[in-house]
Amino acid sequence: MSAQQDFYDVLGVARNASDDDIKKAFRNLARQHHPDVNPDDPAAAERFRGIAEAYEILANPDTRARYDRYGHAGVSGAATGNVDFGDLGDILGMFFGDGMFGGGRARGPRGGQDAAVGITLTLREAAVGVQRDLDVEIIGDCERCGGSGAEPPTRPVGCETCGGIGEVRQVSNTPLGQIMRQLPCPTCRGRGAIVETPCTACKGRGSQPERRTVSVGIPAGIDSGQQVRVTGQGHAGDPGAPPGDLYVQVQVEDDPALIRDGLDLHVRVDLTVTQALLGATVHVPTLEGTETLVLQTGTQPGERKTLRGKGMPMISNAKRRGDLHVIFAVHVPHTLDPQARRLAEELDKAIPAEAYTSEGGGLFDRLRGRTRG
Ligand SMILES: [Zn+2]
Ligand SMILES: [Zn+2]
User: What pairing do the DSSP bridges indicate for beta strands 115-121 and 246-252?
Assistant: First the structure.
């Protein structure tokens, strides 16, 4: 069933259908199209998912209103097939018994929650990547029982209900005849084993809060707001289920000298008016340390120089790097003593007017040329 098919058409109801009409239409369709009723029709599951999605959107006044106004775009992601079917489960339970869609008693062991921790790096650390040991507080496996939930030296024993496989076959009598399906074993909750003597430290849960040191590699080129996932280092799940993941959320500090703009960096170099005039050797801060630049006579205020490949590395390919843009600021003295004034006056006489024009023209000339362009 196409995801773009109109939800009202899917359920076969009018756009002004009442909640009851919608519910009734859904029940009828669910009976006909449920995959357990159509074991030989592989398309039934897909059809049923479309029906369930349409119902989920239209049964909720909020998502129905959004769908009426904006169509599928208004509810995109609201029902992805990965939804909690609790409400549907209640309704379908009337036809198909409990435990539909993983809801209810027979749910299997649940995996652990993801955890998050923050980390702050300097720009220079972000440029090369770092390996950090992070202290995290987490729900971990119980130390006493190792996560099994059984008081040492006992161990969990195999579940007799399911023979240790964690699943049972359930046969339901429905108006449509007998339906058989696999469910997580209700005795062991899908784990295949039972704890007869619960661990005294965790009361059989198998988990307890702990402080843990996790070593995390942060790749070169990381930026603020990005995160690094460490698989399996999140909170412990139910006994027998996998732990969650740890997300390391990265903050990169501003650097006193280098300003980041994506892959590129900007740095300001301050020159005195005489340095700008006479030329100078300056040391430009870079990620690696400093770069020495030899300036000729006549550096203009705001002039730029680009150092190719001296910017930040790409996170996906550290060999590719942005550029470092050097911007020159020229500072003019606020006061002059009599001797300096005399020299400046002589200098002024000594420099002909043509010396102030360059081949490219001044800023205003360039602007004028552009507007006339
Ligand atoms: Zn324990
Ligand atoms: Zn069992």
Answer: parallel
Q: Are 149 and 198 in contact (CB under 8 A)?
A: yes
Cα of 112 from ligand 1 centre, angstroms? 16
Q: Report the C-alpha gap between 178 and 170 in whole angstroms.
A: 10
* pLDDT computed for residue 370 by the predictor: 60
Q: Give 248 Cα–ligand 1 centroid separation in angstroms.
A: 28
Whether residues 247 and 325 fall in one domain: no
Distance CA(77)–CA(120), nearest Å, equals 33
Q: How far is the CA of 195 from the centre of ligand 1 (A)?
A: 11
Ligand 1 centroid to Cα of residue 60, in Å, is 42
Cβ atoms 199, 206 nearer than 8 A? yes
Q: Which residues of the chain fall short of a pLDDT of 50?
A: 1-3, 80-91, 93-106, 373
Residues 231 and 119 in one domain: yes
For the domain that residue 81 is a member of, what is the CATH number? Answer: 1.10.287.110
**pTM to 2 decimals?**
0.59
Nearest to 247 by CA among 264, 263, 234: 234
